[in-house]
Amino acid sequence: MTTPVCTSATQPAVTRPSYPSFSSYVRARGPVLMRAARSLTANPNDAEDLLQTALAKTFVAWDRIEDHRALDGYVRRALLNTRTSQWRKRKVDEFICDELPEPDPVPAPDPAELQGLRDAMWRAIMRLPPRQRAMVVLRYYEDLSEAQTAEVMEVSVGTVKSAVSRALAKLREDEELAPALFE
């Protein structure tokens, strides 16, 4: 007994649906096309942008595409062409050179000088009247808003504003701080 051999004439033809509208095509084939776009880029967000651009190009040509069974191929070609164009337009930030340029020297602050400045600042703050000192500490060291400082101190916001303003003016005029801050 011989086994029947299947020929291409006896196999059923694969039929692809024809899409009545662009939106129905995108709804039906969107996930497959997104996988294709993701295979072309490393970043999922770039893949979404790439697919959106390719679909926009397909939408413009929708009426000219006669065989809707070939839409996937059309969109894939648009994806590939768009990605190639993006790659060619890419800005090159690296240049080959014989010698590396010297970085601009940015002197690191001396920890001893920073500690001396902090100590001078605290001594100047300690010379402020107690109420102004409390408001400056709450406002700038505890990072409270004017309203929060007013609530803690049980005064109005205007009182906080004026007291802090006077305290900062005294700190600017402090003889120990002035040389350290304005060198």
What does the model show?
- The chain folds into two domains: 22-88, no CATH class; 111-181, Winged helix-like DNA-binding domain superfamily/Winged helix DNA-binding domain (Arc Repressor Mutant, subunit A), CATH 1.10.10.10.
- 62% of the residues lie in helices and 0% in strands.
- It is mostly helical and 183 residues long.
- It is elongated and about 85 Å long.
Protein traits:
183 residues; mainly alpha; Arc Repressor Mutant, subunit A; 8 helices
CATH level-two architecture of the largest domain: Orthogonal Bundle
Number of strands: 0
Instruction: Classify the beta-strand content into a percent band.
Output: under 5%
Major β-sheet, in short?
A: none
How much helix, percentage-wise, in residues?
A: 55-70%
The SS-based structural class is mainly alpha
Question: How many DSSP H or I helices?
Answer: 8
Q: End-to-end span in angstroms?
A: 106 Å
Brief write-up:
The protein is mainly α and 183 residues long. Helix content is 62%, strand content 0%.
Question: How does the SSE layout of this entry go?
Answer:
Layout: H1 22-40, H2 44-60, H3 71-89, H4 111-126, H5 130-141, H6 146-153, H7 157-173, H8 177-181
Helix pairs in contact: 1-2, 1-3, 2-3, 5-6, 5-7, 6-7
Family: Belongs to the sigma-70 factor family. ECF subfamily.
Protein name: SigE family RNA polymerase sigma factor
Domain RNA polymerase sigma-70 region: 26-91
